[in-house]
Design brief:
228 residues; alpha/beta; Rossmann fold; eight-stranded mixed beta sheet; two-stranded antiparallel sheet; globular; binds NADP nicotinamide-adenine-dinucleotide phosphate
């Protein structure tokens, strides 16, 4: 597949490396290519600056967000939730026709330090997944992978030998099937389809529990398992 990874942080880096390893063609989207290619400072959680990561992946095109979107049929939102609607709004609406948009974001406010505040509530339309789908009805939005860290996303075997759960939400059945193919390529087996994009809210609301659990167990990789 030809996949645009929108985002150059630890999630964008992790997903790009995993997709390349499985033979996909990846284009990375960013705001300002020169700034991103020069970024050496680690992020809040210590992930290396993009420039250091990119030394190993310098064959991957890094282009502006709009150019990455235009070039690919599958888009992954690995940006901050506050910025994605603006990023997408810079592209002509018709561009989104039939594109699958995989949203792995959480709407977090870090302005008051840690823990970040989750902005969404259990009110219809408040999740990032729903907001993207409403604003860009031609895109086929699928929410997934937001309930674990960037490394577990693409290496489920890091936790309990891979015996944990990933959720998907979305209105388009075919788009969810395509996303499940990618998830299985990453090694996911227990994939729960929660239903339409409104169910993205339930997955996004898991973040406070995820963050507290992460602290309580010593910041080790972990994931949720739906035991049944
Ligand atoms: N980190 C994790 O383990 C994890 C786990 C689950 C879900 N998530 C979610 O995945 C997403 C990516 O997380 P992350 O930790 O990789 O990176 P991040 O630091 O949250 O976001 C990095 C990306 O967001 C873009 N961005 C930031 N501010 C922007 C603005 N004002 N306008 C436009 N773009 C902006 C950056 O663009 P530039 O490239 O131009 O700098 C960069 O590509 C987030 O929504 C996060 O909540 C993260």
């Amino acid at each position: 597949m030809k996949i645009a990874v929108l985002g150059t942080g630890m999630v964008g880096q992790s997903l790009t490396a995993a997709l390349l390893a499985r033979g996909h063609f990846v284009v990375i989207g960013t705001r300002d290519v020169a700034t991103t290619l020069a970024a050496v400072e680690p992020d809040t959680f210590g992930a290396p600056g993009f420039a250091l990561w990119y030394r190993r992946y310098s064959h991957v095109p890094v282009v502006r967000f709009a150019d990455a979107i235009a070039q690919c049929d599958v888009l992954i939102n690995a940006t901050r939730a506050t910025s994605i609607l603006d990023i997408l709004a810079r592209v002509p609406r018709a561009t989104f026709e039939d594109k699958v948009l995989i949203d792995v974001s959480n709407d977090l406010d870090f302005s008051r330090g840690l823990p970040p505040i989750l902005r969404i509530t259990d009110v219809a339309g408040s999740s990032v997944g729903e907001r993207i789908q409403t604003a860009f009805p031609l895109a086929r939005v699928v929410k997934t992978l937001n309930t674990m860290n960037a490394f577990v996303m693409v290496r489920p075997e890091l936790v309990s030998g891979g015996d944990s759960t990933v959720f998907v939400s979305g209105n388009d059945v075919e788009a969810k099937k395509l996303v499940q193919v990618l998830l299985r390529e990453f090694g996911w087996d227990d994939i729960i389809d929660l239903g339409d994009i409104a169910t993205a809210r339930t997955a996004e609301l898991l973040f406070p529990l995820w963050f507290k659990t992460w602290g309580a167990i010593g910041q080790k990789p972990f994931n949720f398992k739906v035991a049944r």
